[in-house]
Each structure stands twice: as structure tokens, then as C-alpha cells.
Specification:
Layout: H1 17-41, H2 47-76, H3 87-118, E1 123-124, E2 128-129, H4 138-173
Antiparallel strand pairs: 1-2
Helix pairs in contact: 1-2, 2-3, 3-4
């Protein structure tokens, strides 16, 4: 099926420009948030650490917003048809994509809840105060911190699996799968 894309029609075997933009923006935001999260967690308490925590939260909320927009786009625009491959690979690809979408929401929501339970509100880009999910509760905050870290590490593993599969298709199968998520050359 051909993906509808008013900005630029897609070919039946490619993603449209909007889907490609969502994919790469979300990928960049997730990598930055993950790396920033690991870096800042080992820093001593300082103004720099507090600033980095704010940036990490801003990235998390941005990831959540991009994920919602991407999901809405995906529900209203069919992706290209699956490439010919064994049934188990098709099922694995669909399962991986489902896990990615689930974790796109679960990781930032767990982080938001952790921030709320810790008593540190999120003010998106220092302008838009977001509501707290839960009341301040230090024991709950500790559990939510672990959940956020576990989910983030799970997302990193699923992203690596996704990347490995894309590289396998590109380098070993040479079936053009990667080109589907790159802007068409005109």
C-alpha cells in the first residue's frame, strides 16, 4: 500500500518524508537522552548536573510528544509493503516495532513519574510547567528511578536490535530496506 503524504507523495516501497523525519528526529532525541542520562547520573550534585537533568527531562517530554505525533501519523498513513523475507523475520520486525513504540512512551512516562515522586517538577524548556503524575514519595521515587533506568536500557537494547537488523538487510541481504527510510534522491 502507498503511504499518504500530502507534502511529498511516496513510492509504494518507501516511507514518505514526514515518516522519515519522525524516524530520524526520534532516533536522535533518544540517543541524546540516553547518553545524557548515563553521563549526568555519575556527576556530583552541582549546577551543571541540575542543568543536565533539565535538558534530559526536556528531551524526554520531546520524545513523548514526537512519539505521540509519530503514532498518529503512522495510524493514518500506511507504511510500505513488507519486503519479501521469511515469516519469522516479518514477525520479529513487527514485534520489534511494537516494542519500540511501547518503550517510546513507557520510558519518558516513567521518568516523568519519577521526577514527580522526587518532588522536582518538569518545566518544559523552562517555559511550560507540566503537571505532576504522582505525589512526592521518596520510596516510590526510588522504584520509579529503577523502572525508568530498566526501561531505558531495554529501549537501548531494542534499538540496537533494530539497527542490527537494518544493517543485516543493507550489508548482507542487499535488499534496499535501509533506503526506504532515507529521503529519495531526485
Amino acid at each position: 500500500m502507498q503511504e499518504k503524504n500530502d507534502a511529498l507523495p511516496s513510492e509504494p516501497d518507501r516511507y514518505g518524508l514526514v515518516a522519515i523525519a519522525f524516524h530520524w528526529l526520534l532516533a536522535l532525541a533518544i540517543v541524546c537522552a540516553f547518553l545524557l542520562g548515563h553521563y549526568m547520573s555519575d556527576l556530583p550534585l552541582s549546577m551543571t548536573r541540575l542543568k543536565l537533568f533539565s535538558w534530559h527531562k526536556w528531551l524526554g517530554v520531546t520524545i513523548l510528544a514526537l512519539s505521540a505525533l509519530r503514532l498518529l501519523w503512522r495510524l493514518s498513513h500506511r507504511p510500505p509493503v513488507d519486503l519479501p523475507m521469511p515469516a519469522w523475520q516479518t514477525r520479529a520486525a513487527h514485534l520489534t516495532h511494537g516494542l519500540l513504540y511501547l518503550l517510546f512512551f513507557a520510558v519518558p512516562l516513567a521518568g516523568w513519574a519519577y521526577s514527580s515522586a522526587s518532588g522536582f517538577p518538569i518545566v518544559w524548556f523552562g517555559v511550560l510547567p507540566l503537571p505532576d503524575f504522582v505525589s512526592v514519595d521518596k520510596a516510590l521515587a526510588a522504584s520509579l528511578k529503577e523502572a525508568h533506568e530498566l526501561l531505558a536500557n531495554g529501549l537501548a537494547l531494542v534499538v540496537l536490535l533494530h539497527l542490527a537488523a537494518a544493517l543485516q538487510h543493507q550489508l548482507l541481504n542487499r535488499d534496499g530496506l535501509l533506503q526506504r527510510m532515507l529521503p529519495a534522491r531526485r
